[in-house]
Design brief:
The complex is a heterodimer of chains A (206) and B (208).
Chain A lengths: L3 H5 L1 E3 L6 E3 L8 E3 L6 E4 L4 H21 L3 E5 L2 E5 L1 H6 L7 H30 L8 H11 L5 H16 L3 E4 L1 H19 L2 H10 L1
Antiparallel strand pairs in A: 1-2, 3-4, 5-6, 5-7
Helix pairs in contact in A: 2-4, 2-7, 4-5, 5-8
Chain B lengths: L15 E3 L6 E3 L19 H21 L3 E5 L3 E4 L1 H10 L3 H30 L6 H14 L5 H12 L1 E2 L3 E5 L1 H19 L14
The chains are: A alpha+beta (206), B alpha+beta (208).
């Protein structure tokens, strides 16, 4: 058996299993794997508070994006206003029903769940306190959900759809559209700022 | 920091097992990570089996996704159904080259490229290839990053069919291809996630 201190001083690259000695980095520095160049550690003391504030912002924007009208279509006096929920319910007929569930998961339920998990896991840490019980499970969940929260892809899809109908109708974008657009930007910023290894360490030491 | 010079040691060579979620290193007997409580496995022995299974499912569902209509459009004068490729051709006819390119890349190039890339990665690991490790790792990163973007077309169909519901003037409804296309994307994402990238780097090492 190797002593626990020796093991704790090491970090293994999750991508290629190469062992490295983990050292305390100067602020703003980044450490990458020597073999496959994956980022292993970053030192950003303010990151935790920023991640939390971005996550809270995203949560509020998400609620706005769901409840306000998203797009409004006008052809020769015929109006059709659509919310994000409508977009999902478009699939509620017949065989396409499973698709409605999938789209709901990808653009609303999983992103909300992920935000909630991040806020629950990191909230106390940002205030300098001890993590909640179950914080590790919550953060593990947030990490597992990362590829399945597809807000940014949905926005590109919306852009494509708008250009497709632009020829035959006048489309007005509603407040929810801008909320969703802001949400995407904030989510990307937040994910870039999150250093998972530093967070695991903080959750462990808290 | 350079990759030349001294030989790098993997956790497995050193007799350790590393947690993929948090990087914590353990003695090789450990089963769960003491830091994040994740499951520890030096290598995922079933990785390739899962990769192939999901990949085959993805390829199978990709076929109906291209043969059946993605969108059913009906207007006052006519009814039309368009497949994925048909939708791209239509966009080109309306001189929307940029959008046509986005849809073509997301719905055809990326899925097909992923099938080829995953097949190549899985085969190269199975044959214990020692060439191009860096490039193969990069290829894996790209496949993992880009796969979800294929969902664009499913969302386009969702928005169009929600938006264009103007009783008699024009309606757009989703076709069955939208379901099989979504499934195909999900299956290939699962295939890419099942791939244990550490296997790429094992070829020139002897297991401890």
């Amino acid at each position: 058996m190797t002593s626990q201190d020796t093991l704790d001083a090491l970090i293994a690259c999750p991508h290629c299993d190469t062992l490295h000695r983990a050292e305390v980095l100067p602020d703003g520095a980044t450490a990458a794997c020597q073999r496959c160049h994956a980022v292993l550690l970053t030192a950003q003391p303010q990151a935790m508070a920023r991640v939390i504030s971005l996550a809270l912002t995203a949560f509020v924007l998400m609620l706005a994006a769901i409840s306000f009208p998203f797009l409004d279509l006008d052809v020769a006096g015929n109006h059709n206003a659509t919310s994000v929920i409508n977009a999902i319910m478009a699939f509620n007929t017949g065989l396409a029903f499973p698709l409605a569930i999938l789209v709901a998961l990808f653009i609303i339920i999983l992103p909300l769940l992920r935000l909630g998990a991040i806020i629950y896991a990191l909230g106390p840490l940002a205030r300098g306190g001890r993590p909640h019980s179950g914080a590790k499970a919550a953060f593990g969940l947030a990490e597992a959900l990362r590829p399945w929260a597809m807000g940014e892809i949905f926005m590109v899809g919306v852009t494509v759809a708008l250009i497709k109908v632009a020829g035959l109708a006048t489309v007005t974008v509603g407040p929810a559209f801008w909320a969703f657009a802001g949400l995407v930007v904030i989510t990307v910023l937040k994910d870039q700022m999150m250093n998972r290894y530093a967070i695991w360490e903080a959750l462990d030491n808290g | 920091m350079g990759s030349t010079g001294q030989r790098l040691t993997t956790a497995r060579e050193a007799g350790y097992v590393a947690c993929r979620r948090c990087g914590q290193v353990h003695d090789c007997g450990a089963k769960t990570c003491k830091r994040c409580h994740g499951r520890l496995r030096s290598r995922d022995e079933q990785s390739l089996q899962k990769v192939w299974a999901w990949l085959i499912a993805g390829i199978i569902t990709f076929i109906p996704a291209n043969l059946y209509p993605m969108l059913k459009t009906s207007t006052l004068v006519d009814k039309s159904e368009s497949t994925i490729l048909g939708g791209v051709v239509e966009l080109v006819h309306h001189d929307n080259y940029g959008i046509a390119a986005i849809v073509f890349v997301a719905s055809i190039l990326i899925p097909v490229g992923k099938f080829i890339a995953i097949t190549y990665l899985a085969l190269s690991v199975q044959l214990r290839s020692e060439i191009n490790m860096h490039n193969r790792h990069k290829l894996y990163d790209i496949v993992e990053f880009i796969g979800r973007w294929s969902m664009i077309d499913v969302f386009v169909v969702a928005i169009l069919s929600a938006l264009v519901q103007l009783n008699t003037v024009a309606t757009v409804n989703p076709g069955i291809a939208a379901v099989s296309f979504a499934l195909s994307v999900i299956f290939t994402m699962l295939s890419a996630q099942s791939f244990d990238a550490r296997l790429i780097w094992d070829a020139d090492r002897t297991p401890a």
